[in-house]
TrEMBL record:
It holds the Pfam family Sugar_tr. PANTHER family: SHIKIMATE TRANSPORTER. The keyword Transmembrane helix applies. CDD domains: MFS_ShiA_like (cd17369). GO terms for molecular function: transmembrane transporter activity. It comes from Caballeronia sordidicola (Burkholderia sordidicola). This is MFS transporter. It comes from the Bacteria. It is a multi-pass membrane protein. Residues 20-427 form the Major facilitator superfamily (MFS) profile domain. It is found in: Cell membrane. Keywords: Cell membrane, Membrane, Transmembrane, Transmembrane helix, Transport. GO terms for cellular component: plasma membrane.
Length: 435
């Protein structure tokens, strides 16, 4: 476990720490830009271009299942890259995952459609989506540890929030870019415009690689390496000694990602196709939510440094339950203002508070010898439920109506509350900071 109240680097405000925080933020931003562009395309593009031989409903479900496959692959990526991250170091793994994610995204922008090459198109799209999922499965744990194992313990919540602030920034950037191209004339957009958000990733990948090549290995891993405590098989140790905590981390992330994907994917499809709301309205609300959460996450992370991790986690759970109950009543009004409010409550406030914690809290739950594997496994297992959510919620809606989606949101909120209630506090009172 971390020693509270000490700076891992010895120089909390050093140029090295600032570089690490920026590297974690920038890398996560680029990775989530890629992921967001794919998410929006799954809801609005792929069923028309890659699954055209099926009925519209089946084509949509297949597109959403392709989206889900990326999430199903993430635990595998967490185990694979967690193993090497615990044995070889955080930095080399982060460079590899970044190249995989960026390369897959760029190739997606060059893919021929079903009309051009037939069934090969959705097959290659699915393979690239799996590659994305494996890469992102190994990315988060390393990005979180990069900061949490370098920064001072009494500011770990604040500094470590940079990892998932990158998620918000990447989501915002991806949504803005996709939204701008979506305003093109429909024929042009479906002909070539949809490719441009993917291809623009080339610039971001070059920048991201340059940033990550310049960072140092974390002090915590160097200590493990120097003391010859490197685990031979981290996953075996995690399953033997830390399974309960891994499952609680999984539950916390399951609830959050279920709600996120109902709002970001199912909600986008629902308001545009069932309520006749222009996609730009919902995409703009998502962009604004991401922008607001860039500020909410560091504030919530700093709050966790002051009052502890559990209270902030429970606050996130309560917000997800309350705002989850309000989401559909607000959305189904069809009002632009109320739809925007619903998205902001869910993606900016509820998710913003919840996403402030994982990069500081989850690493504190596990010893450094197996931390990359444990954090990655628990976090990425939790995202599987979220990845399946757009397809599940579409089926629930088709068979049981909108009330089933409301029940889904409630279950997700309760799951978050239960997980944070059962997880232990990791921040002793004596090490809590002031503002």
């Amino acid at each position: 476990m971390f020693q509270p109240g000490t700076a891992a680097s010895g120089k909390p405000e050093s140029t090295s720490l600032k570089r690490v925080v920026f590297a974690s933020f920038a890398g996560s931003t680029i990775e989530w830009y890629d992921f967001t562009v794919f998410s929006a395309s799954s809801a609005l593009v792929f069923n028309r271009l890659f699954f055209t031989s099926f009925s519209p409903t089946v084509g949509l479900l297949l597109a959403l299942l392709t989206y889900a496959i990326g999430y199903l692959a993430r635990p595998l990526g967490g185990v694979i890259f967690g193993h090497f991250g615990d044995r070889l170091g955080r930095k080399p793994v982060l460079i590899i995952t970044f190249m995989m994610m960026g390369g897959a995204t760029i190739i997606m922008g060059l893919l021929p459609t079903f009309e051009q090459v037939g069934v090969a198109a959705p097959i290659v799209l699915t393979i690239l989506r799996i590659t994305q999922g494996i890469a992102l499965g190994g990315e988060y744990g390393g990005a979180a540890l990069l900061v949490s194992e370098t920064c001072p313990a009494d500011k770990r919540g604040l500094y470590s929030s940079s990892t998932l602030v990158g998620l918000a920034a990447g989501t915002m950037l991806g949504t803005i870019v996709f939204g701008l191209f979506r305003t093109m004339p429909q024929d042009e957009f479906f002909s070539w415009g949809w490719r441009m958000p993917f291809l623009l990733s080339i610039v971001l990948v070059v920048i991201g690689l340059w940033i990550r090549m310049r960072i140092d290995e974390t002090p915590e891993f160097l200590k493990v390496e120097k003391s010859h405590k490197v685990s031979k098989l981290p996953i075996a140790e995690v399953l033997k000694h830390d399974l309960k905590r891994v499952l609680l981390v999984c539950a916390a992330r399951s609830g959050e990602t279920m709600q996120f994907n109902i709002v970001a994917v199912f909600g986008l499809r629902y308001v545009t196709h069932n309520l006749g709301v222009p996609p730009s309205v919902y995409l703009s609300a998502m962009s604004l939510s991401s922008f607001l959460s860039i500020f909410i996450m560091p504030l919530s992370g700093a709050l966790s440094d002051r009052i502890g991790r559990k209270p902030v986690g429970l606050l996130a759970g309560i917000a997800s339950l309350v705002f989850g109950a309000a989401y559909l009543p607000l959305v189904t009004t069809g009002s632009t203002l109320l739809i925007s409010l619903a998205v902001i409550l869910m993606l900016a406030i509820s998710a913003g508070i919840g996403n402030a914690l994982p990069s500081a809290y989850f690493p504190e739950l596990f010893k450094p010898e197996v931390r990359y594997t444990a954090v990655s496994l628990g976090y990425q297992l939790g995202t599987v439920a979220g990845g399946l959510t757009p397809a599940i919620s579409t089926l629930l809606y088709l068979h049981f109506g909108i009330d089933a989606i409301a029940a889904y949101l409630a279950v997700a909120g309760l799951l978050v509350i239960m997980a944070f209630f059962l997880l232990p506090e990791t921040l002793p009172r004596g090490s809590r900071s002031g503002f």
